[in-house]
Design goal:
Number of helices: 9
Oligomer: single chain
Order of helices and strands: HHHHHHHHH
Structural class: mainly alpha
Strand content: under 5%
Length: 233
């Protein structure tokens, strides 16, 4: 039988007030108040240590160990961002610290409410798809798909944090898997040509996520401007 008194098991099986959510809420409070960030950083490291210790625990099945690894990766990203934020603050680099604070805030909000973050990411993708359709069918501006692919991924990463970034990656992968085969029929091309086009879309997707993460305050429409079909270097 599973020992539900184990704090890591509580993380996975207790739906009410699990420890990871509480930790993220403490980080959020510390960010908004500007206090106790050092204390939170130590708690973050302790939580990572506990996850690693329990990764080899035989009580967990493979699905649980994968969840542990994902949780550890998320905490690691937050920890690095928190460390950068503290360092920038210590060196009085206010502008860079503000950007890091914004990124960290979105990361934590996403971790606290991953389902809401995923749904909001879907909304971002739908909004960009509707813009793409408007340009294609109303303005007769074609070959805008790479631009809107990248813009959707950029906006999701900027506004939804690391969960939004991962959600954007999942949605993009699913879309490209579907498009590989429908593209053959709709555009009368070979499967190899469809796969090549899908990979070009994926390059745009990855670029959008990378730039969204790197430049959290920049407008994605401007960040991804070089992917517009009429862009001239």
């Amino acid at each position: 039988d599973k020992d539900y008194k184990n704090p890591v098991l509580l993380f996975f099986y207790n739906r009410k007030g699990n420890q990871m959510k509480k930790l993220n809420e403490k980080i959020l409070h510390a960010l908004k108040s500007g206090k106790e960030t050092e204390k939170i950083f130590r708690m973050l490291l302790k939580a990572q240590e506990n996850l690693l210790k329990n990764h080899s625990n035989p009580v967990f099945n493979k699905a649980d160990t994968n969840k542990i690894l994902k949780a550890h990766t998320s905490l690691d990203d937050v920890g690095k961002s928190l460390y950068r934020y503290n360092t920038l603050q210590e060196h009085h680099l206010e502008s860079q610290a503000r950007e890091e604070w914004q990124t960290l805030l979105h990361d934590i909000l996403g971790l606290i409410n991953p389902i809401g973050t995923f749904l909001n990411t879907i909304k971002i993708f739908i909004s960009n798809y509707l813009e793409l359709l408007y340009h294609a069918y109303h303005l007769k501006e074609f070959e805008m798909d790479k631009y809107y692919h990248s813009k959707a991924n950029c906006e999701a990463t900027q506004t939804m944090g690391i969960i939004g970034q991962k959600s954007a990656e999942i949605l993009s992968d699913l879309k490209e898997q579907y498009d590989k085969y429908t593209y053959v029929r709709t555009h009368k091309v070979s499967l190899e040509e469809a796969i090549a086009d899908s990979e070009r879309d994926q390059v745009a997707n990855r670029l959008g996520r990378e730039r969204g993460r790197q430049y959290p305050y920049c407008n994605c429409a401007i960040l991804m401007h070089d992917l517009l079909p009429d862009y001239k270097k």
